[in-house]
Amino acid sequence: MSASSWEGFVIDNLLAAAPERTIASFYRTAAGAKIDFLLEIPGHGLWAIEVKRSLSGRPEKGFYIACQDLKPDKQFVVNSGLEPYPINAATTAIGVPALALMLSSLTI
Q: For 81-106, what is each residue's pLDDT tens digit?
């Protein structure tokens, strides 16, 4: 599966699991700050999501700069794994099934 196919798969699955009235977008600046996928979830704030295919994929500097700009309530790196683990104090690596379950269990 190509990187763009993986990203599309992740986005489709997370959107399907997100609560109604969730607004999806992305963030990119000319200076290189970027977030692959943003979810603005009523009652739960802004979630920043970076999509990586590998289990050990880490966000690039642009993700952290974008997070400083937007100050999301939650930060995730979605990977192909099953077990979540912390990347740092603010960012969690998580698999698609676990994040989809988290989104589908939110109440608004």
A: 889 999 999 999 999 999 999 999 99
Work out the percent of the chain whose per-residue pLDDT is above 70.
97
Tens of pLDDT along 46-56?
999 999 988 88
> Are the C-beta atoms of residues 40 and 17 closer than 8 Å to each other?
no
Q: How many structural domains are present in the chain?
A: 1
What's the CATH code of the domain at 52?
3.40.1350.70
pTM over 0.85: yes
Q: By residue range, what is the domain housing residue 34?
A: 3-104
3-state SS string for the chain: CCHHHHHHHHHHHHHHHCCCCCEEEEEECCCCCEEEEEEEECCCEEEEEEECCCCCCCCCHHHHHHHHHHCCCEEEEEECCCCCEECCCCEEEEEHHHHHHHHHCCCC
